[in-house]
Design a protein that fits this description.
This protein is mainly alpha-helical. The chain is built from nine helices and no strands. Helix 2 runs antiparallel to helix 3 (44-61), helix 3 (44-61) crosses helix 4 (74-101) and helix 7 packs across helix 9.
């Protein structure tokens, strides 16, 4: 087989009928992607998860790969991985803001932070489901969409048939109620 026939672009085109061709593209770039993900996330397990997710997204998008002159898929794969890392950072920021709004401790990132975080939340909140269940249905829906699902106020408003300001007010009231419940239980 000629050298030009083994470019990533050729393998990605071939992968529509031969999945092993896609596996070869993954093998070529897995180490570099994993090293970058681990450095960005400082979490080896999450880096492996995002590597798998990067390849899964690439698999479904492979027909849209626009080959550069050399046919190298590395920049494309890194772009997918970069978007996934951004999503992780965004989700973490949303979680930190939600914890701050609820008056929960915002843990310092370390390798034990997830465990400490869960234990602190269980201790302070008890059963969050019960607390959310005690909210009026309209407030509960608003806080779930905003805090749990991380939607912006425009989207919360659209889903609840409210203006963004109305959605913000409902979330604010729900968080206030949860805060006062938390204060009473401490």
């Amino acid at each position: 087989m000629a050298t030009y026939a083994r470019t990533d672009a050729v393998l990605l085109r071939r992968s529509t009928r031969d999945p092993d061709a896609f596996v070869e593209v993954c093998r070529r770039h897995a180490t570099a992607l994993l090293n970058w993900l681990a450095a960005e996330l400082r979490d080896e397990a999450l880096a492996h998860d995002l590597l798998a997710e990067t390849f899964a997204e690439a698999w479904f998008a492979r027909k849209r790969f626009a080959a550069p002159n050399d046919g190298n898929a590395r920049p494309w794969l890194f772009g997918i991985a970069r978007n996934l890392v951004r999503r992780v950072h965004r989700d973490r920021a949303i979680e930190r803001r939600a914890r701050a709004r609820l008056g929960l401790p915002v843990p310092e990132p370390d390798r034990f932070s997830d465990v400490v975080d869960r234990l602190a939340a269980e201790q302070q909140l008890g059963d969050l489901g019960e607390r959310l269940g005690s909210l009026p249905a309209d407030q509960r829906a608003a806080v779930e969409l905003r805090v749990v699902h991380g939607l912006d106020y425009d989207e919360v408003g659209r889903r609840l048939h409210l203006t963004p300001a109305g959605a913000r007010t409902r979330v604010f009231r729900a968080l206030g109620t949860l805060r006062s419940q938390l204060a009473r239980s401490i």
